[in-house]
Amino acid sequence: MVEEKTDKMKRLFAYEHDAKRLELFIRIVYAWICIGIVLVVYSFIAGICMLIQWFVILILGRRSEGLSNFIKGYLEYYVHVISYYCIMTDDRPEILPKRVEIYEKE
Cα–Cα 20 to 30 A to 9, which of 16, 33, 77, 105? Predict the structure, then answer.
């Protein structure tokens, strides 16, 4: 049985014609400094987790669920904030990581 998704889904990388000039200046502090710092720290820790995961797979022949969940959390956060960070939208994401699920359309 396939579970149906009832939550409202939002397309993250949709084209937006209108843009706010004030938001452009707020973005310098909010995205490039605040979110940038979180991304750098999160990516550094996720990189260490990937290295540890590599050794876990090499030695044990399986993945660590905790390490996988942390790395997945980093990837989900990155995808969640990148459209704002790259000036594609004016919708401000939260600075701290938020639970986001990513699906691939078949």
Answer: 33
| Alpha carbon distance 76, 100 (integer Å) | 6
What range does the domain containing 72 cover? 43-95
Cβ neighbours around 44 below 10 Å, total? 11
Tokens of 96: 């701290």
> Does residue 12 lie in a domain region?
no
Q: Is the pTM of this model over 0.85?
A: no
